């Protein structure tokens, strides 16, 4: 007596003699005699390779879209919260000063002026970072590497932000060979150094130290380190530093504002140079931001 068993449907990869692989949707029905002897197998198959590839492509696009939406949400979060807060503080300071300037002593006026300048500087940096970030996402930031003297560039960056260090009595050391050169986009590299050093100053208590060093490694890349004696970070904070979908902001040792956007810019710019970035930090001891860049023109 002939018996027909339940059909089985599967997806199977088949490799042909020429090495090509195809994904088949198969439907197999075994036929048996009543004594358990297999008579044969009736099978139907169809090639679903293209459909599967299309499904995988859609899945990949959905993941990319989800990432873009996350970045957009972060961007608007920064605008909505982190931009409103410093503007509120800035407007509050100017309002108090405008209404009470005639009754204030010169020392009080000086203190207000210093606070207003600090607020304005923070606002400028935030707006600049927002502008650069939006330009990166649009792909309109020009990348123009050229031979750059790193000592001169780092010294210029330090001079631009030295007042923030002086106000906290933080010593900035520049341990860089005077003749050290590399092939890099000057504007991007300045943004990276300014952000890293500003970040170090922000999270270093008064009378601390920030050290900028650079060295040629294996004749292939220049390795740059920004070391501080600040409050440090735990491993979870380090792991989330360069993720836009995770909020890592915290205030500096003097209440300085932070969005985390500057570090994201640094990572984007370093990777634009085919460079690498890594962070070492110990809570209560300090943080080291390291990054390496190719120094030869043909390496970029």
Describe this structure in words.
The longest helix is centred in the first third of the chain and has 34 residues, at 49-82. The model has no long low-confidence stretch (mean pLDDT 82). β8 (209-217) and β9 (221-228) form a beta hairpin. α2 runs antiparallel to α3 (106-138) and α3 (106-138) crosses α7. This protein folds into three domains: 2-47, Beta-Lactamase (2-Layer Sandwich), CATH 3.30.450.20; 83-141; 147-300, Heat Shock Protein 90 (2-Layer Sandwich), CATH 3.30.565. It has seven helices and eleven strands. The chain has 300 residues and is of the alpha+beta class. The strands form three sheets. Strands 6-8-9-11-10 form a five-stranded mixed β-sheet, covered by helices on one side. Strands 1, 2, 3 and 4 form a four-stranded antiparallel β-sheet that branches.
Give descriptors for this structure.
Heat Shock Protein 90; five-stranded mixed beta sheet; 300 residues; four-stranded antiparallel beta sheet; 27% strand; 46% helix; alpha+beta; Beta-Lactamase
Instruction: Count the DSSP helices.
Output: 7
> What is the total number of structural domains?
3
Report on the biggest sheet.
5 strands, mixed
Low-confidence stretches: none
Radius of gyration: 30 Å
Q: So what's the oligomer here?
A: single chain
Task: Please state roughly what percent of the residues sit in beta strands, choosing from under 5%, 5-15%, 15-25%, 25-35%, 35-45% or over 45%.
Answer: 25-35%
Strand order in space, largest sheet: 6-8-9-11-10
Helix content: 40-55%
**Count of distinct strands:** 11
CATH domain class name of the largest domain: Alpha Beta
Global structural class? alpha+beta
Mean pLDDT value: 82
Instruction: Spell out the CATH superfamily of the largest domain.
Output: Histidine kinase-like ATPase, C-terminal domain
CATH architecture of the largest domain: 2-Layer Sandwich
Overall form: elongated
Distance between the termini: 75 Å
SSE series: EEEEHHHEHEEHEEHHEE
Topology-level CATH name of the largest domain: Heat Shock Protein 90
């Amino acid at each position: 007596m002939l018996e027909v068993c339940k059909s089985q449907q599967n997806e199977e990869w088949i490799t042909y003699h020429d090495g090509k692989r195809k994904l088949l949707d198969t439907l197999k029905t075994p036929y048996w005699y009543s004594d358990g002897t297999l008579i044969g197998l009736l099978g139907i198959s169809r090639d679903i390779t293209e459909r599967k590839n299309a499904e995988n492509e859609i899945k990949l696009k959905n993941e990319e879209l989800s990432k873009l939406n996350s970045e957009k949400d972060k961007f608007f979060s920064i605008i909505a919260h982190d931009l409103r807060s410093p503007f509120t503080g800035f407007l509050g300071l100017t309002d108090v000063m405008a209404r009470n300037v005639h009754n204030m002593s010169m020392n009080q006026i000086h203190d207000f002026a210093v606070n207003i300048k600090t607020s304005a500087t923070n606002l400028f940096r935030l707006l600049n970072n927002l502008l650069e970030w939006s330009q990166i996402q649009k792909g309109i930031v020009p990348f123009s590497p050229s031979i750059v003297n790193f000592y001169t560039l780092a010294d210029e960056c330090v001079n631009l932000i030295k007042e923030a260090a002086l106000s906290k009595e933080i010593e900035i050391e520049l341990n860089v060979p005077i003749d050290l050169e590399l092939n890099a986009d000057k504007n991007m590299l300045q943004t990276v150094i300014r952000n890293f050093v500003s970040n170090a100053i922000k999270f270093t208590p008064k009378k601390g130290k920030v050290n900028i060093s650079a060295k040629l490694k294996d004749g292939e890349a220049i390795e740059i380190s920004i070391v501080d004696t600040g409050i440090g970070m735990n491993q979870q904070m380090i792991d989330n530093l360069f993720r836009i979908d995770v909020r890592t902001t915290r205030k500096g040792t003097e209440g300085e504002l932070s969005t985390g956007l500057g570090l994201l810019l640094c990572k984007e710019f370093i990777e634009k140079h085919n460079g690498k970035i890594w962070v070492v930090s110990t809570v209560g001891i300090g943080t080291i931001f390291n990054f390496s860049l190719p120094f030869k023109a043909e390496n970029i």
